[in-house]
Amino acid sequence: MSLQGILGRTETISKRKRKRKRQINDLNDSKRSSSRIRSLIPIQYVILGFAFSVALYVNAIEEQQLALQDLLIRNDSNTRQQSKKEVSDDDVSGTSMTESTILSDDDASSTMTNAHADGSNQSSDSSANKTTTIGWVVTITGCGHDAIMDGAAVLKHSIHLNSIQAGANKFRYDYKMYAIYHPEGEACALPLKDLGYKLIRRETPVATQEIEGKFLRKKIESNGCCGAKELIKLEAYTLIDHQVVVLLDLDVIVLKPMDALFDLMLDEASPSSSDHLSNTNSTTNVPIMWQDKPIPDKVNAFFTRDYHLVAPEKPYKPVQGGFLVLRPDMAVYQEFLSIIKKGIQKPGGWGGLVGPFYGFMTIQGIIPYYYDVLHKNEAIELNRCIYNQMMDNPRDNSANDNPQDKCRTNQQECEECRTRPMGDIVSAHFTFCPKPWNCFPNDVDTIELRLCRKLHHEWFRIRSDLEESWGRDPIGTGTFQEEHFFGFCSDHGKTGYTSIAQPYGRLVPGSTSESTDEEETDEDENRGEDSKGTSEDDENGKDEPVES
């Protein structure tokens, strides 16, 4: 074979090899592609199957929701039909569905004891029946020697017994207790928290050095019972969470509800309606002192006067500082502060009109100056024989049960408060009568002592009820006139008095009786009212004021 032939054959063989190699590569590529396709098929099936399952699940859920909605609609329809039937049945029987929520007198009394007689002071303003809560305020300016805690405990319980908490069928208003105290009285004020008082710490509202009037600036600290500290009573006007606030001293007890006063202050109708008011000798509705004075269109305050502190011919009489029912208002509060800062330049009193008399530089003078001079026809003077009864002599003198000389009111005739029946008295103030914790027997049958003895007995009765509401023995171990003092006096005088034992609101440690629920207490906050927790009274003839 020639060289050319060999080369041609070699080329042909190479071409065949290359062709076969391409065919083999193509075949391998085809196999790999086919293998990839086959591997994808199960994944597609899985995705399609999952999507189909989800669709079935969603559809099932929607069907269940529709079925549930249909069931709820049918049940709601049946419920409304049943309710209509029940209402119809009640209408037929004449029984209101709400009557089951009203306690009977016995149930209310039982509930009061179990929940603690001076228990929860929770406001009912947000409740369905919109019960109005009245703010009740005492003030403490310092720590004296009187039984401040006992006065506070009995006062609070007397208020409780005349509130809606003592029986919804009898009374309409709830209550909340406040104790406004000056820093100098902090030590004796703090225990009041355990009695359920909300404590409010207040400095004197106007510093003495800020007073412009030279006479007031120099004299106010020595005036009355407590000096400038007495002005913390004005803090009661700042309790704007309440529509009405009652300011009292700690030697006061409440014997009947004051709902008539609250009704008049909260009534949208004209207060001048005769339906609200009564003459000085009536106890229906609001017993006003003077029938010939105009009646305010809007009553912003009630008070009584202390006629014993000033000569009968004086035109402006002092307000009794231990009783004031007021409408809280920050604008009024600020106006009082402005009046005090302006002060008194001369001894003639506020505006040269109101004063001088005992306590005229503070509450007993500035209140009548505000309501008698600056803002006439905004307040009503109440009959002092019914409200804030002090057992004072209405005339200059008395002898053998017969009052003598002229009336302190500068009238020809005046009522003898000391002969008022106990059933007429709404609140009593132990100013001329000795303080109850003095264990004074008052067993001489004279006009000066008869009513005092009855009121002392009532104070101790309220204390006995309070002790019993705490699960304690309602009768003490003292033997001095045991029936009269309920066993809480072992002898005549302060040293014979048995103080209320701590802890308040529960059994005394070591007692074998079962304890009732503890009394709730309010947390400290700011904004409150009244002074020394007792009375700021005349130095002549009156029992010493309670320095609270």
UniProtKB/TrEMBL annotation:
It comes from Cylindrotheca closterium. Signal peptide: none annotated. Residues 1-31, 78-129, 500-548 are annotated as: Disordered. Residues 93-129 have a biased composition (Polar residues). InterPro entries: GNT1/Glycosyltrans_8, Nucleotide-diphossugar_trans. It comes from the Eukaryota. Residues 515-527 have a biased composition (Acidic residues). Keywords: Membrane, Transmembrane, Transmembrane helix. This is Uncharacterized protein. The chain crosses the membrane at residues 40-58.
